[in-house]
Design a protein that fits this description.
The protein has seven helices and 14 strands. By secondary structure, it is α/β, with parallel strands linked by helices.
């Protein structure tokens, strides 16, 4: 097998992957991703022990143990472009031999769970509540650079979405990928479940109007009104579809867990977003430690 060139796989002098600054031994099989670098310590303070602390740019990682589980929490920063870096480098850490720069013959699967914030697109999903994304529907273009194939259910969902919303005519060509059933099944009680839409920005791409006019001013209404069987769109943010799509292609198990900090239907915002995030972290860690 031909080695991967230094320009394609960048390894530092200490044998770490470039952006995350992690050595393969420093990554746990369970990975929690958070957007905010400061949120890493909010998660890891609940660990029984912290073994590793690394930081490079906005990418902060703490690896430790919680009960019998070894867990890493990694900050991604905001947006699908950062997810492209993080997911590819997480995979490289477990599935590429850094000494030979070749893909390992026996591949490993990580369990990757996002703990994030998002906006609700349904009146009955209030601020401070939790959502587990059954699917990630991307309005960004990241997965169009890869060979993502949708299964029959996803194709039907996507076709219904395109037909009902007509969003693709003015914005992008959406894609969709499902969460890992093996993870999703543990996050039912206390979690709303539904489709999480990923947008490539916070203002116009999420239908916010400040000083600029929008190409799709009815975006929020169209997302809220979408229905296909038991499926509806519960929330939107800026990372989930990229995590789901890349995890599927790379053979990892993923799930996006979000706390609602804004309800875009009734125009409300959490009175204490930090407290709401902490509640999501505590509850999710309890489930992870107990599974």
């Amino acid at each position: 097998m031909k080695p991967i060139a230094p320009s394609e796989l960048i390894i530092t002098n200490r044998g770490a992957i470039y952006h995350l600054d992690l050595h393969p031994d420093e990554l746990a099989p369970i990975v929690l991703t958070v957007g905010d670098p400061d949120r890493v310590k909010v998660v890891s303070k609940y660990f029984d022990k912290i073994e590793v602390q690394r930081q490079h740019r906005e990418f902060v990682t703490h690896t430790g143990t919680l009960g019998k589980k070894r867990i890493s929490v990694v900050s991604t920063g905001i947006g699908p472009d950062n997810i492209d870096i993080v997911l590819n480098e997480l995979d490289a850490l477990v599935n590429i031999d850094f000494s030979t720069r070749t893909i390992k013959p026996n591949l490993s699967s990580l369990s990757i769970l996002r703990l994030g914030t998002s906006g609700s697109l349904q009146a009955d999903i209030p601020v401070d509540s939790f959502v587990a994304g059954t699917h990630g529907l991307g309005l960004d273009n990241l997965l169009h650079f890869y060979r993502l194939e949708q299964n029959e259910e996803e194709q039907e969902l996507l076709q219904s979405f395109l037909t009902q919303t007509q969003i693709h005519h003015s914005i992008t060509q959406p894609y969709i990928s499902a969460a890992a059933p093996s993870l999703l099944k543990h996050f039912t009680e206390g979690y709303h479940q539904g489709i999480t839409v990923t947008c490539p920005g916070f203002y116009g791409p999420q239908g916010r109007i400040l000083r600029l006019g929008l190409a799709a001013p009815q975006l929020v209404d169209r997302l809220t009104d979408f229905q296909y069987g038991q499926h509806r769109i519960t929330n939107f943010e800026m990372e989930t579809s990229a995590i789901y799509g890349l995890s599927r292609l790379l053979g990892h198990h993923c799930l996006s867990l979000n706390v609602i900090v804004a309800n875009r239907v009734n125009k409300t915002f959490s009175l204490d977003g930090q407290a709401a995030v902490e509640k999501l972290i505590v509850r999710s860690l309890e489930i992870i430690a107990g599974t």
